[in-house]
Amino acid sequence: MDRHEIEGHEVIEGEVKATGNGAHVLVPKRWRGADVKIVRTSEPDE
User: Fold this and answer.
1) Could you tell me the superkingdom of the organism this chain comes from (predicted)?
2) Distance between CA 39 and CA 18 in Å, rounded?
């Protein structure tokens, strides 16, 4: 596993859910319009 250092304001943990031909992660509504970064921390189940 690689190590990445990211500066930010807040961290949440969630599960990626299938949607259409892709997937999504839900974040708080107050994050609308913010720039975010997603880091995969485990191997996919597929």
Assistant:
1) Archaea
2) 17
Which DSSP helix (H) or strand (E) runs through 24? Answer: strand 22-24
Q: Is 26 helix (H, G, I), strand (E, B) or coil?
A: coil
Name which of 1, 30, 27, 33 is nearest 14 in CA terms. 27
Q: Which amino acid is at 6?
A: I
pLDDT, one tens digit per residue, over 8-42 is 999 999 999 999 999 999 999 999 999 999 999 99
Q: What six digits make up the tokens of 5?
A: 């250092």
